[in-house]
Design a protein that fits this description.
The protein has 325 residues and is an alpha/beta fold. It is 40% helix and 18% strand. The chain has one domain: Rossmann fold (3-Layer(aba) Sandwich), CATH 3.40.50. β3, α2 and β4 form a beta-alpha-beta unit.
Length: 325
């Protein structure tokens, strides 16, 4: 008998572990998105975009929960070319140095540059959490590039919205330690409960694959370190930096049809605040979801997808009314 060397499997790199978790998450929802990279000159960045489906283009801008928050919603929205942006520093996108002033113009130009690289003139935009600010900023600075806007969950749109505790902590000196410590699934579940998703967690509506992806994002990439850098550019002390939020006059100049979907268990903002925001938008409408949390599609992806799809396809829209689920 001849001795044979046994090959030792090469340990997976952190990037490979992240991509494996990401692939499993999208596959769980029956999706296999295409991987795109775009290089932007001003501001300089190399951004990654995942593209799924075909039809009218829709740009999805995530919040601090990350780009892996979108597959459950996109899977329920056939008939669209869904473009999921890894915000700078997230996933495989390069980080950028966010300005202390001019944040809204900066992120709007990032999105415009991304569309230029994709050879897309005009899109509808769906934002979640701080992605709401990105969506409105894009419409404000490049109105001819944006068709319709969907804002999912409360975002730091107006000054009445207080900075969430976890975001204040992230911006503080202790945040430097927070983003370097390993994250556990128990901690992720606790964060979702604090965001108003207790019932959905108990019912198993948030997929195991999402938790695996989010753990890989936190522990195998520097996404949260880069997110902290971004947060420090928009938070000062216990409040938002001046000029980061929109005032009513600025909202009144956003002429695109805009739909807000807000869960009544969302701790960010309040129903009264979002009624005022809706009223300030020339073509705004508010949909309330009873018992839903900060990411309302986590609680009922089918319902949110139906509302978003109908709104994006509706040539009228912008009723200004508030409706409840």
């Amino acid at each position: 008998m001849t001795d044979q060397a046994i090959a030792t499997p090469r340990p997976a790199s952190s990037v490979e572990r992240y991509l494996d978790a990401e692939t499993r998450l999208w596959q769980h929802y029956g999706l296999a998105p295409r991987n795109r990279f775009v290089d932007i000159a001003l501001p300089r960045a190399r951004l990654r975009i995942l593209e799924a489906g075909s039809g009218p283009p829709v740009l999805f801008i995530h919040g601090t929960v990350g780009p892996g928050s979108w597959p459950s919603l996109i899977a329920s929205m056939p008939g669209f070319r869904s473009l999921v942006l890894d915000r700078p520093g997230w996933g495989l996108s390069t980080p950028v140095e966010y300005p202390r002033r001019g944040y809204r113009s900066y992120v709007a130009d990032l999105m415009a540059g991304s569309l230029d690289a994709l050879d897309i003139d005009r899109v509808d935009v769906v934002g979640g959490s701080i992605g709401d600010v990105w969506a409105l900023s894009f419409a404000e600075r490049h109105p001819d590039r944006v068709g319709r806007i969907v804002l999912l969950g409360g975002g730091p749109i107006v000054s009445e919205v207080r900075v969430p505790g976890v975001i204040r902590a992230l911006a503080s000196p202790i945040g430097a330690l927070m983003v370097r410590l390993p994250v556990s699934e128990d901690r992720l579940r606790s964060m979702l409960r604090e965001s108003g998703h207790s019932t959905s967690l108990e019912d198993g509506r948030v997929a195991d694959e999402f938790f695996a992806w989010r753990l890989a994002s936190a522990n195998d990439t520097k996404s949260m370190r880069h997110e902290r850098d971004m947060v420090r550019g928009i938070v000062r002390g216990s409040g938002w930096r001046p000029g980061f939020m929109f005032d009513e006059d600025q909202l009144a100049r956003i002429d695109q049809p805009t739909m807000l979907v807000y869960g009544t268990a969302d701790p960010t903002g309040s129903i009264d605040i979002w009624r005022r925001v809706t009223g300030a938008l020339p073509h705004g409408e508010l949909h309330l979801m009873e018992g839903a949390g900060h990411h309302p599609w986590f609680d009922d992806a089918s319902l949110v997808a139906t509302r978003v799809s109908r709104f994006l396809a509706d040539p009228a829209g912008g009723s200004g009314a508030a409706t409840a689920a």
